[in-house]
Amino acid sequence: MQINTDLLHKIATAATRHLDDYLQETLTASAEHGNFGMQMLDQLHEQLPRTSCDDCGKCCNTVSIFSLEYHRLIREVMAIWPPERLRRLIQSAFRFDLRQAEVGNEKRLRCIFRDDETRVCLVHAVRPFACRFFGLLKESGIRECDKVKDLHLPETIITQEYLTSLQTKILENSEAYQPFPGEEEIHFFPFEFWFFRYIFSPERALQIYREILVPMSSPLTQLWQKYDTQATRE
Question: In this structure, is residue 234 part of a structural domain?
């Protein structure tokens, strides 16, 4: 799939012209969301095993998250980051082209919260489910990464049924949209989708999702092609 370079350029130009306005829109939207669902989300996150790794960063690429998790991330940085650092975060959200990466044979978009110089996650304490799931011990006895280890023994086997049950509890508290024409709405989108949804509109965010985020991510491209093939057959 081809990236809409014209749209990419417009987005980068807009960031230069209206950075402070977009920063205000971002913070205001999450502040207005209030504390609704935050405590529940933190409690659900805590029901997963605590793990450690060597912080190589290979898995630190943009993942799909709930809108509730988006607000949790924004509220965290809003509370502890100084204004200039928040501005750099907003600038990074607009500059997709600076975060393109190759992971094995796949195209990925590097996570906006990964600091490659210090090798740390800047929001580790409130990282979303998708990050917490990675490397957990599965029923098959396999982990996605052998660098991930449980902090407490014995190691905990996590079933897909258990993971689904945790996420199901926050579905009704998160927004859903229809990215693929004719298909069901979904609740999981990259951080960048939610960012643009709250400073622009859901329609603009979906356009950015389809024309920039999907082509930049091999997993999203594969998902899009799957739905596109189904629609063609029908």
Answer: no
Exposed, middle or buried by CB within 10 Å (0-12, 13-18, 19+), for 143?
middle
- The count of domains in the chain is 1
Q: Is residue 60 domain-resident? A: yes
Please identify every stretch of the chain with a pLDDT value under 70, giving residue numbers as ranges: 228-234
Is residue 201 included in any domain, yes or no? Answer: yes
Q: Which residues pair with 177 in a beta bridge?
A: 186
Written as one letter, the residue type at 1 is M
Whole-number Å distance between alpha carbons of 185 and 187 = 7
Bridge partners for 109 per DSSP: 100
With b for 16 or more beta-carbon neighbours within 10 A and e for fewer, the 148-182 pattern comes to: bbbeeeeeeebeeeebeebbeebeeebeebebbee
Q: How many residues does the chain have?
A: 234
∠ CA 91-32-42 to the nearest 5 degrees? 85
Domain that holds residue 119: 5-226
Nearest in space to 62 (alpha carbons), one of 111, 104, 96, 131: 111
pLDDT of residue 230: 59
Read off φ and ψ for residue 199, nearest 5 degrees: -100, -20
